[in-house]
TrEMBL record:
It comes from Flavobacterium microcysteis. GO terms for molecular function: DNA binding. Residues 121-310 form the Tyr recombinase domain. It comes from the Bacteria. Residues 4-97 form the Core-binding (CB) domain. Keywords: Chromosome partition, DNA integration, DNA recombination, DNA-binding. GO terms for biological process: chromosome segregation; DNA integration; DNA recombination. The lineage of its organism: Bacteria, Pseudomonadati, Bacteroidota, Flavobacteriia, Flavobacteriales. This is Integrase. PANTHER family: PHAGE INTEGRASE-RELATED (PTHR30349), TYROSINE RECOMBINASE XERC (PTHR30349:SF81). Pfam families: Phage_int_SAM_1, Phage_integrase.
Amino acid sequence: MNKSDFPKYVANFISKHLPFERGLSINSIRAYRDTLVLLIKFLTEERNIREAKIEIKHLTKELILAFLEWIQEFRKCSNSTRNSRLAAIKSFIRYVKEEDIQYMHQFQQISSIRVKKTVSTITPYLTIDGLRLLLEQPDLTSERGRRDLVLLSLLYDSGARVQEIIDLTPSMLRIDKPYTIQLLGKGNKMRLVPLMSEQIENLKKYLKEQKLLESHTNHYPVFFSSRKQKLTRAGVNYIIRKYAQKAMKTNPELIPKKLTAHSLRHSKAMHLLQAGVNIVYIRDILGHVSITTTERYARVDSKFKREALQKAYLDINKTEDALWEKDYSLINWLNKF
């Protein structure tokens, strides 16, 4: 009896093709994994195909379209998320086609599925006064409050992505002049970002308090929970929301209603742009591959200026045994990866 070919392709795609052939980071790989987990869930729950019986031949254009409709209707996914799931599936079926030419027709059919239009949203950002108010919120008499102040200020000062801060270790910090931070970004690309001297004083005190200046702690996470575990994305965004809510009680006009780690990165970019920093330097600080990505900030800034002018005008006139075979359940294997 022939075994299903689907688990083999999934396992090799996730554990070999994406990390070694395409060089993707673990977070990018998890995004592909999550899509495949959802697809398996759809096949088993909605199409009544047992996990062990799933085959590549089941992945027709019609089935993928039904899957995309399902995640939007029942899981309430946005067009943007739907398009990301579709891109992951196309990438997977392209890999399968390269491994076995018999799936060329399926690849062509699935590749013809179009993305849906998305509405561009503007990521909220803090003004300098808003940032100052946010950083005043942590309680510096507590150990957690001191950690949170360093976390918030370092997120802003470095313009780091949330995962880059989560993965930060003491060995990636230079706390002697010239002060710098190494950030491991998308595609496992490392970049060096300068830090301000004002940031360094609080950072040094925090590292000393947490005993992270000792040589054996070089590869410990800089920011960790009470259980000594690396913070999660959800954990970092929870910390930001907590202080944003406190700050809003003082001055709701200075704090956007939805503030995330990405908002602090966005704030840094906007402040650099408004200060007249060359957009090429901003691109390098943020770790963008293309300057086109960075140019969005220039367009956003122009839009806010235009809106401010329009608002002012109106005011005057009135009165954002293969690896896969070791685990019987493919979903269990994917979730452990």
